[in-house]
Each structure stands twice: as C-alpha cells, then as structure tokens.
Amino acid sequence: MENRGKYVGIRIGLGVAAALLLGRLFYIQIINDKYKTDALNNSIVYETVYPPRGVIYDRSGQVLVGNKATFDIMVTPREVTSLDTLALARTLGLEPDYIREKMSYYRTYRSRIGFKTLVFARHIDEQAYMRFSEVEYRFPGFHGRIRTERDYPFNAGGNLLGYVSEVDADYIRKHPEYRVGDNVGRTGLEAARESDLRGEKGYHIYLRDSRNRVLTSYNGGEDDKLAVPGKDIRTTIDAHLQQYGQDLMKGRRGSLIAIEPSTGEILALVSSPGIDVEDLADMGSNYARLSSDPGKPLFNRTVQASYPPGSVFKLVCGLIGMQEGVLKPGDRYSCSRGYVYATGKKLGCHEHRSPLSFTEAVRMSCNAYFCYVFKNILENKKYGSTAEAFDKWEEYVRAFGFGSKLGTDYPGELGGNVPKSSRYDKIYGKNHWRFSSVVSLSIGQGELGATPLQIANLAAILANRGWFITPHMIRDEARDSTIHSVGIDRRYFEYGIEGMWQAVNMTTAEGATAPLARVRGLDICGKTGTAQNPHGEDHSVFVCFAPRENPQIAVAAYVENGGWGGSTAAPIASLLVEQYLNGEISEERQWLRDWIKVK
Question: In terms of C-beta distances under 8 Å and separation of at least 24 residues, what long-range contacts does 218-223 make, across chains too?
C-alpha cells in the first residue's frame, strides 16, 4: 500500500509539472509574441528608413536649406547569384569597368562583408533610377534606395548654415546613438541645431529564408516604425540681404554683420571669403580643397576672429569718461598731429582743426582727444591707484559686451580680449605703470581684441542709446530677451550720435570722415575706424545704424587690409543699409556700388 501511494504521488507530481510546462509553452508560443519574435531574429532583416532633416528658413519664410530626393543603388553581395554586367551598366548609365571593379572588391572581402548591404552607386540620375526600378528583378541582390540630401535655393550663408556629412568611427565612439550611414551637422546651424534637425530614424522589417533572401514584410508591416522628420527652424536672417552682403564682400577678407537693434536679431552674418553653398552639398569631395585654401573659407571670421576694434572704440572711452564725471561734452582738447604721452613718444593723428569738443572729436576721429579722455579716466582722484581706476574702466568695457562671449545661439563664438590690471602689474610691477603704459587702449589698439559680432553689437548699443539684447539668429521660440544695460546715462549717447551723424552727413571740408556712407533720406549715423596691422596694410572698420531715430538696422563692416575706415568699410556698410531700408540702391549711388566691385 505504501508503494502504491508513493507511485500515485509521483504520478501526480509529474502530471502537475507536465501541466505547468505545457501551460508555459502555450503562453510562449501562442499568447506572448515576444518569444516568437526572438526566435525569428536570425531570419529578420531591418532596413533603416532615414527621415528628412528639418528645413531652415529665413525671417520671411524663404527656404535657406531644404531637401531634395537623391537616388542610390544598394547591393547585398552575398545575394548576387549571377550578373549581366553590360545590362546593368546600360540601365544605370555606368561604365562596365566600374561594376567589375566593385564586384571584384566584394569578392576579395566577402568574409568581412558577410550579409551586409552596401551602397553600390550614389546619386544615380532619376531617369536611370526609374529604368532600374522596372527591371530590378533581373538583378538579384540589387535594389534602389531613395533618400534626401540638403538643397540650397539661395547662395547665401554657407558658413552660417554649416554642412552635413556622414559620421565616422571616431564620431560614433563619442556619440553612440549614431550608427554607420547616419548623417550629422558638422558646423554652423546644422551643428548647433542637430538635435532638432536630425529627426528620428524608422525601419522596415523583412523576413529572409535560409539563403538570406528577403521574402516578405514581417507581420504585415505592423511592427515597422515610421521615420519622424526633423523639426523646421526659422532664422532671423534676411536671405536677400545675406546674399547682397556676400556680393559686397566678394574678393575681400573680413566680416559684414547686420543686427536689428531693438530685438538683437541678426539680419546678415557674412564671413569672407566663405563657403559657396554648392560646396556644402558635397563637402566630402570639397573639404580638402577648402581647408588648404589660403583665404581660409572654413574659418568663420564673424565670431572666431579677434581684431583690434580701432577708432570705433573711441566712443566707448568717451561715454565712460562722461559717466565717470571726468569729461563734459563741451570740454575741448587740442591736437597737434597727435598726442605726446612721454618724452620723445607721440601717438600720431591726421590733420584737422583744433581744439575740438567731444562731438567734433567723434566726427573727425581725433586720436589726441581720446588720449586726454582716457588719461583722465585712469587718473580719476576718486580711485586710490591707476590699477583701481583701470578696473572700473574694464568693468564698463565688459558691460559693452567685449572680453567674453556674448552668448549668441550661433556656435563657435569666441570672447575676444580685454586686458586686466593684473596683466600690467606682471609686466611693469604693481603700482609701477601709468596711463602712458597703456595709451594705445584709448583708440582701440594695444591688447584689445574683439570679434566682428561684438563690434556689430556695439553699433546696436549706440543705436539703442545704452542697451542691447544678446544677438541671435533663431526665431519663433522662447528665448532670453533680457535687456543688458551698459551702465551709461542715455543722455550722453546723444552727443556721440550727433558726432556719428556729422561724420556721415557733413562734408570732408567740415571734417566728416565717412561722407561716402551718406544716403539721402536715411540719416545714417556712423563711425570710422582704422585698426593698425603690423603684418600689412591697416584694417578698415566702420559701424553705423539708421535711421537716427527709431533705428531699424545696425551694421559693422571689418575689412582686413582695407586701409582707412572711410574708404572701404564705410561705403560697404552703407550700401547694405540702403539695400535693407530702401530695397534698392539709388541711381545716384550706383557708381559707388560699381566702384566697390573693382576696388
């Protein structure tokens, strides 16, 4: 009886175990598809579907960067059982030798390639692609792929837009979310807005047989994932103004930048020489040539070059002097072709009448006047030392946006340089340096370094009478619109602006330094600058805004080796202003446009 009970217990235990096992198998095979899918993994093929990148628009909705269809032929070498080389060559419009070389390569490296699908031919003509689609069945292992690549309706802003290229092994190592075959924005807005523009990849799932041949869509396509297109972005750039600015700077090295003062929106950002948009579409082929070009077209001067600001900086020193109480607008200082700051040492100046008030000194760009002003700032009795007064001056200068990054949404921005008193303590010894040691700073030379964007921001500050919103180039999104005050009383700006208006709208005989920038009816206010260059001809600088009241545009032109500011940078900047505000260049100034082209 005991044995019979024991056997009954064993049979019951085995029955329960069998029931549990059968129940589990039923759940795995019938109810839960996950295990079925896992079992099929070895016979499943995933085909990546790439999304179109987001479109980049200008401020009015014009397409700066769009997408166009491009056609590739793909091949899975292991699936090529037989091949009529001549027929495939005729269909695709390729040379037979190209096909033979490709197939020879695949045979040589067949073990490395395995069952991978490779790009056989890129950028096939659309007509050839359609011919191939009709006879694809004749070429086992080959299939077509339609994808998108960047398209540029305007030849405007190659540097600011940036380029897209396929990721390499090094990039994938640093960004594991990318895979071989993915594209990524490398520079400019394409890089800065990569997370928005890239979109999200999708895929199709196919079943294949024991010979790795694709048979049909898996599960009727229900498990396929749709690609999500990238987000579109709208910029603050005016496409036509950008294009016109590039034309004005053609053949020159430098920058031309326009900002809407009231908003900080960048209207044009020209780095010259720059990248032609036709080169952007195929940077893989063009990069080596562009990177070896002595003009450095890949170098974005607008935010990465650091130059002495030159005489446009005189306005900053004058405004600081008035705010600090060491300069009154009517104070007059003499100039005898320069300023003697030490025995046998003189900072030179051009010939003009003397003495001058602040407004006149701005109009005539007198070096000596601003040497006196800077001397008074550093010898201000309310400070205990030259270094302490210098620290206060530095604080003001940094409030104008110099010496550090402005924080724009454009990538690659550098900060320029504003020296600290500690620098001169190290050079001369603490309390052993004076105004005469740093006199060149008074006219925007010496250790000062500024990017063209910072100089353009100065033009916007002058237009706004003492404040700015961080320059930016993306619209239609929540952003920091903080108004940054430079800490100078608004009333002092009017004396400088009057001098800027006179510099453009008075005559050369009256001491105007930028009469070539005058445009009838626009009330352009401007300041010339000639930045000394120890390596060649001086740089030509000009900042301006217009109209005088309720300014709509502020511009900075910086032309390397352009000479005197009023001769090159001023007419270029004024032509950009005129084009923006009037929509055309007046007949009476067409000669200037023609002259700039050949100058």
Answer: 218/40, 218/44
Q: DSSP code of 123? A: S
pLDDT of 146? 84
Cis bond upstream, residue 176 (ω within 30):
no
Reported pTM: 0.85
> What angle is formed at CA 130 by the lines to CA 126 and CA 135, rounded to 5 degrees?
145
Tell me the pLDDT tens digit for each residue of 97-111: 999 999 999 999 988
Q: Is 447 left (phi over 0), alpha (psi -120 to 50) or beta?
A: alpha
Assigned CATH class of 236-285+454-599: alpha beta
Beta-strand relationship, 142-151 and 338-342: unpaired
Q: What pLDDT was estimated at residue 211? A: 53
Angle at 501 between CA 496 and CA 504, to 5 degrees: 130
The superfamily CATH assigns to domain 45-234 is: Penicillin-binding protein 2a (Domain 2) (3.90.1310.10)
Task: Mention every residue, 6+ apart, whose C-beta is less than 8 A from residue 183.
Answer: 50, 53, 164, 165, 166, 167, 198
- Half-sphere CA count of 319, side-chain side, radius 13 A: 27
| Cis amide linkage into residue 547, ω under 30° from 0 | yes
